[in-house]
Design goal:
heterodimer; A: Uridine Diphospho-n-acetylenolpyruvylglucosamine Reductase, domain 2; 3 domains; five-stranded antiparallel beta sheet; four-stranded antiparallel beta sheet; 12 helices; 14 strands; B: alpha+beta; Aldehyde Oxidoreductase, domain 4; Aldehyde Oxidoreductase, domain 3; seven-stranded mixed beta sheet; six-stranded mixed beta sheet; 37 strands; binds flavin-adenine dinucleotide
């Protein structure tokens, strides 16, 4: 439980960080809250030779409105998401999700950027970002670019980030007023990653589901966007038969591992039940 | 006397003696981060040791090259079995009469086994050096399933003892066999079963778990080569035994070894035995002449130092149609891992498993235990229990439930029908023990009334109907357990460790001003000894508890004792404390008689001093007596006021209790809610009710953890799974149920103050209570036994197997 040797760097600005990462190459890793990276280093499952601490970069913090979007700096902590009145009003699902992550100590230090950039299928925020159709603003030596959350996750700990590239901010389209969203997570205890979890963001019109997005956590190598399930529900009145078909479609795309949280069969079923509960709450919250 | 003179009640209250809810004095430092644990101790020039461990569960070491590690700057030494062999230290004796590899000799026998010990200037260098050790292995077939251990073609694990066909506990019938142990009347039991109207048989697996104290095992050895003296700080539940073991295996004279157990952050049985880390720290310090510290990390703790349980218990009961139990038979297959490193008294290879007839008057019984080796970490320690008592109580308390189910009888009623009656004590049990005292019927009735047991059963019946009608997806379980423990080991006639009788001790010194220091051979790891021993002394000596300092853990100053585990401190050292105090009081009486110029028979004890019978104003307080003992000659008496007592208990003590649990389980997720948990404990005389309550809360929380999720699992290849707090279930305040505590008080007739011990009762009684609740919840669907741990996914699997999900889907 003792990490290998590494050099520590603390850049003061985004360009400085980007330049450092470019110079140091594959042996360097950005350090945000360290609550995923440092445990991995203690187990020597990660052995970066350089840590580029982003904590000194003021530009990477904060929550702001930009047109119809909310942009959250990568270094905004999970506790700050919970505390933001602005977010609670516009995107209540973020607070709901953050409150299900770990415990207060972890949330005071762990960041939103680290949570979504980590690429661990057990992280909770990536599925929520997929359901919200968020965009990740990346910064690199070759300049800035944007990647949709739905395109970002390629495998366990594999993301669209190029070597030397980093995440600067997360940009989320504000769902229309009256939308309904919910995140349901089954875990063994406080501080545990999900046995299975489901995020739902939907709108209703005339008693029918007008738009719907669903994503699942920790039941595959990446967070999973359940497009078929969402498609089945769109246009329906969320009748029992449609719900059952959608849940079956969501379960069908899961490929969980058997581990201490349960067998693969169990975790697939739990993904279905979490989705059922998330849908029920999102539907109850949505107007129209 | 004027009005200012305190009343008798006021003087009693000032003592804070037995029965007082005195606040724990040790908490003043613990709650302010001022404890002094092994890892807080820093000696000049101290080095750090760390292990290179085997990735394989069973393999031959083909090549072990430490040269790259040794070449790393800051590395002082790398020890391997080859270095220890010339000192004859590559194996060490275990408490169970086996030997255990300190560093793997030619072969590794479990994953994470210690292979090499790196000693470096700091922890970081040591950890880096471990990565530089080159070891080549040839993998061997792995033995994980203990039921395959004794097959003719099973891989042979212990080549070091392959020719030794008689072990510490008799003949071995296979190279992987450790012992066969039988107690009771086999023929009589077989006859009773053959003619019994009703019999039941069920195999209960008590899974492998771990005591997981918050502080892991650690040691700091410092050899002074000039003086030839070794100081060894460590997380030792039994410091004196460690000193003797170190002397025996190192050849250092025992008086030149100073073992010090400072504050200990929980033990629960994990810190009774001796570990490779202790030996390597000592050897390292002897070789290098510098202090060497070894601190286990969490994964090492969970995967290498002593596990607990791993008992496969086939349990049978024979009974009449109306539920009178006629006989019990129990066969246990015990998985001990790679070495027999159980921490039991020497003569008891399966601990006190033969308390498995429980609280019931069972005329005849037979118990047989086979211990076997497997490719797993060794241990089998008593995790918050007295030597396999948790296993024994689990077997009988599950078995009575299975019998009740077969008979169609209420399980609480079945228990009551078979309880040992009050007038049968001292009670001679079929498997050999003499129970000291108890009033089981009274305790059970009090508990059943407190929880409205009949009302709960009525509610459950209605819920079951509602479930069958599809109106709810929850099933309700009522867990009952009634346990009898056997603690306070123990009488030297049948209990010893390495040949040393399991007495314990207390030495008291009263200072001239009337304050006190007292030392015991036990060692608190959180039990609150500094508080409770002082309360015993306060009552016995008439000196306020706040004026009494309790000290344990330094073998130079404390009298020899066997340590703290198996709820033995109060039954043994607590008794020694009272007995030593009584010696002091007898001398004090002589001094008081001299001072008051009366015959000592004319004096009587009164709370905090002696008074002349019939003349209460003629009195001498203990404070005055203490002063006198130092400042004036008393004819025919030595000066000073000191005493020591070594107490060899005449018998064990037998605490008992009645526990009830109400649980609701969602069959679609397996998620459960403990709605209610009620624990009635009878630990005899109650020294500090608040500490008892704290011990009950802690023990129940660990019982909840073990029964509902905590496990050390091995996959089929022998890889240890989930050995971190990510998976190993340590409940937080959020998961932990609310505990209701209650008591009855039946003193032990043979203990000087009637106390029986309580630290482990809640664990022993709690585990079967939770498991019975789960089993009771499912029983109306036709199940007879579901193994622990009862975590959500396993409960869901049971529901799946019973077709409860398919049914629901069909209905929807
Ligand atoms: C006990 C415990 C329980 C936990 N439980 C949960 C849980 O239930 N759900 C959950 O979602 N998480 C959980 N976590 C993880 C926690 O939320 C982490 O804080 C989070 O995953 C990572 O955020 P961080 O700021 O700590 O990032 P770090 O650990 O510093 O970094 C994580 C990874 O992301 C990379 N990275 C960080 N920032 C950037 C960036 N701006 N650009 C590019 N790469 C970057 C790092 O290089 C690293 O590879 C838990 C952690 C602990 C210790």
């Amino acid at each position: 439980m003792i990490p290998g040797r590494f050099e520590y760097h603390r850049p003061k600005s985004l360009p400085e960080a980007v330049a450092l990462l470019a110079k140091l190459g594959e042996d360097a890793r950005p350090l945000a809250g360290g609550h995923s990276l440092i445990p991995m280093m203690k187990l020597r499952m990660a052995t970066p030779e350089h840590l580029v601490d982003l904590a000194g970069i003021a530009d990477l913090k904060g929550i702001r409105h930009e047109g119809g979007r909310i942009v959250i700096g990568a270094m905004t902590t999970q506790a700050e998401l919970i505390a933001s009145a602005d977010l609670s009003a516009a995107l209540p699902i973020l607070k709901e999700t953050a409150l299900l992550i770990a415990d207060p100590q972890v949330r005071y230090v762990g960041t939103l950027g680290g949570n979504v950039a980590n690429g661990d299928p057990g992280n909770d925020m990536p599925a929520v970002m997929m359901a919200l159709d968020a965009t990740y603003q990346l910064a690199g030596e070759k300049g800035a670019r944007e990647v949709a959350a739905r395109e970002f996750y390629q495998g366990a700990y594999f993301t669209a980030l190029e070597p030397g590239e980093m995440l600067a901010a997360i940009s989320i389209p504000v769902p229309p007023a009256g939308h309904g969203a919910a995140y349901e997570k089954l875990k063994r205890k406080i501080g545990d990653y999900a046995t299975a979890a489901a995020a739902v963001v939907l709108t209703k019109a005339d008693g029918r589901i007008a738009t719907c997005a669903i994503a699942l956590t920790n039941v595959g190598d990446t967070p999973l966007l359940a497009e078929e399930a969402a498609h089945i529900l769109t246009g329906t009145s969320a009748d029992a038969a449609s719900l059952a078909r959608a849940i079956a479609a969501a379960e069908a795309i899961t490929e969980p591992a058997t581990d201490g949280r349960g067998t693969a069969a169990y975790r697939t079923k739990m993904a279905g039940i979490m989705l059922e509960r998330a849908l029920a709450r999102a539907l109850a919250r949505a107007a129209g | 006397m004027n009005d200012q003179t305190p009343t008798k009640a006021e003087r009693e209250a000032r003592l804070q003696g037995m029965g007082c809810k005195r606040k724990r004095v040790e908490d003043i430092r613990f709650t302010q981060g001022r404890g002094n644990y092994v890892d807080d101790i820093k000696l000049p020039g101290m080095l750090f040791g760390d292990f290179y461990r085997s990735p394989y569960p069973h393999a031959r070491i083909k090549k072990l090259d430490t040269s790259r590690a040794k070449a790393l700057p800051g590395v002082r030494a790398v020890l391997t079995a080859a270095d220890l062999k010339p000192l004859n230290l590559h194996y060490m004796p275990t408490l169970a009469g086996d030997v255990q590899a300190v560093l793997a000799d030619e072969k590794v026998l479990f994953q994470n086994q210690e292979v090499a010990f790196v000693i470096a200037d700091d922890r970081y260098i040591a950890a880096d050096a471990i990565e530089l050790i080159d070891c080549e292995y040839e993998e061997l077939p792995v033995l994980v399933d203990p039921s395959k251990a004794l097959l003719p073609d099973a891989p042979i694990l212990r080549e070091d003892i392959v020719d030794k066909m008689v072990g510490a506990h008799g003949p071995r019938r296979h190279a992987n066999h450790i012992f066969n142990w039988q107690v009771g009347e086999k023929d009589g039991t077989d006859e009773a079963f053959a003619s019994a109207p009703v019999t039941v048989k069920e195999t209960f697996y008590y899974h492998r778990t771990h005591p997981s104290p918050l502080e892991t095992c650690q040691a700091l050895a410092s050899m002074d080569k000039i003086k030839g003296e070794l100081t060894l700080y460590g997380t030792f539940q039994a410091p004196h035994v460690i000193r003797t073991v170190v002397s025996l295996i190192s050849g250092l004279p025992e008086h030149k070894i100073h073992v010090i157990a400072p504050d200990i952050g929980g033990g629960f049985g994990n810190k009774v035995g001796a570990y490779a880390g202790y030996v390597c720290a000592v050897v390292g310090s002897i070789v290098l002449g510098k202090p060497v510290k070894w601190v286990e990390d969490r994964m090492e703790n969970l995967s290498t130092t002593s596990f607990a349980r791993d008992y496969h218990m086939t349990t049978e009961l024979a009974a009449t149609q109306d539920g009178k139990i006629l006989a019990m038979r129990c066969y246990v297959l015990a998985d001990h891992g790679a070495f027999d490193a159980c921490a039991d008294p020497s003569k008891w290879p399966a601990g006190f498993m033969n308390i498995c007839t429980g609280s019931y008057d069972i005329p005849v019984a037979h118990l047989e235990v086979d211990g076997v080796y497997t490719n797993k970490a060794s241990g089998g320690v008593a995790y918050r229990c007295s030597f396999r008592v948790t296993e024994a109580v689990y077997a009988i308390e599950r078995a009575v439930e299975v019998l009740a189910q077969k008979l169609g009888m209420d399980s609480a009623d079945l228990r009551v029908k078979n309880f040992i009656r009050r007038d049968q004590f001292p009670y001679h049990a079929a498997l050999g023990w003499e129970y000291d005292s108890g009033d089981y019927h009274f305790a059970m009735e009090k508990a059943m009334t407190a929880v409205d047991y009949r009302g709960l059963r009525t509610e459950q019946a209605a819920k079951r109907e509602a479930f069958k009608r599809g109106e709810t997806r929850e099933i309700m379980g009522i867990g009952v357990s009634f346990f009898t423990e056997i603690v306070g080991a123990g009488p030297s006639k049948n209990c010893d460790i390495l040949g040393i009788g399991m007495f314990d001790s207390c030495e008291i010194r009263i200072h001239p001003t009337g304050s006190v220091i007292a030392r015991m051979g036990t060692k608190s790891q959180g039990q609150g000894h500094e508080t409770t021993y002082a309360q015993i002394l306060a009552t016995e000596l008439g000196i306020p508890a706040d004026d009494i300092m309790i000290e344990e853990g330094n073998t130079d100053t404390a009298p020899y004792g066997l340590g703290t585990y198996g709820s033995r401190s109060t039954p043994t050292a607590g008794a020694a404390t009272a007995m030593a105090a009584r010696k002091i009081r007898a001398k004090a009486q002589m001094i008081a008689a001299h001072l008051l110029e009366v015959h000592h028979n004319d004096l009587e004890w009164d709370v905090d001093g002696f008074q002349v019978k019939g003349l209460p104003e003629k009195r001498k307080s203990m404070k005055e007596i203490a002063w006198a003992s130092y400042n004036q000659p008393i004819p025919n008496l030595e000066p000073g006021l000191e005493a020591v007592n070594y107490y060899d208990p005449p018998n064990m003590t037998y605490p008992f209790g009645a526990y009830f649990c109400v649980m609701d389980i969602d069959v679609d997720t397996g998620v459960f809610k403990v709605r209610r948990f009620y624990a009635l404990d009878d630990c005899g005389t109650r020294i500090n009710p608040m500490i008892i309550e704290g011990q009950v809360h802690g023990g129940l929380t660990e019982a909840f953890a073990v029964s509902m999720g905590q496990e050390i699992r091995y996959d089929a290849m022998g890889n240890v799974m989930g050995a971190s707090f990510m998976d190993f279930f340590l409940p937080t305040a959020v998961e932990t149920p609310h505990w209701e505590t209650d008591f009855t008080e039946t003193p032990s007739p043979h203990h000087p103050i009637g106390a029986k011990g309580v630290g482990e009762s809640p664990h022993v009684g709690g585990v079967p209570c939770f498991s019975n609740a789960v089993n009771d919840a499912f029983s109306f669907l036709g199940t007879t036994h579901i193994n622990m741990p009862h975590d959500a996914w396993r409960m869901w699997e049971m529901a799946e197997k019973l077709g409860l999900h398919a049914q629901a889907n069909a209905a929807a």
